[in-house]
Amino acid sequence: MKNIKLNPNFQFQWEEKQNCYVLLYPEGMVQLNQSAGEILNLCDGSNDIQGINKILCEKFELQDLTQDITAFLEEAKNRNWISHE
After folding, report:
1. SS3 category, 13
2. Exposed/middle/buried for 39, CB within 10 Å: 0-12, 13-18, 19+?
């Protein structure tokens, strides 16, 4: 997936009361766990899977998260949360 970005029908934001990232949409809200929030926070249209992996591995001092990121992004794509070019 290249140039991954959020679907414009969703609003991604930090929800202080929930103490987590959420996706807001007309029908409701999706509360995200930390991993999902960290990944979606990088889906700004300028990152691909390799870029997201590099940023998160540096941030959390890990070796490789490619499989986890790919699996999550496939699920996010199936839920129509993201798109890619």
Report:
1. strand
2. buried
DSSP string covering 29-54 = EEEPPHHHHHHHHT-EEEE-HHHHHH
Amino acid letter, residue 7 = N
82: left (phi over 0), alpha (psi -120 to 50) or beta: beta
Report if pTM > 0.85.
yes
Distances 43 to 17, 28 between C-alpha atoms, Å: 23, 21
Q: Over the stretch 32-51, which tens digit does the pLDDT of each residue have?
A: 999 999 999 999 999 999 99
Rounded Cα gap, residues 47 and 85, in angstroms: 11
In angstroms, the Cα distances linking 73 to 23, 67, 83 are: 14, 10, 10
Give every strand in the sheet of 44-47, ordered side by side. 44-47, 4-6, 82-83
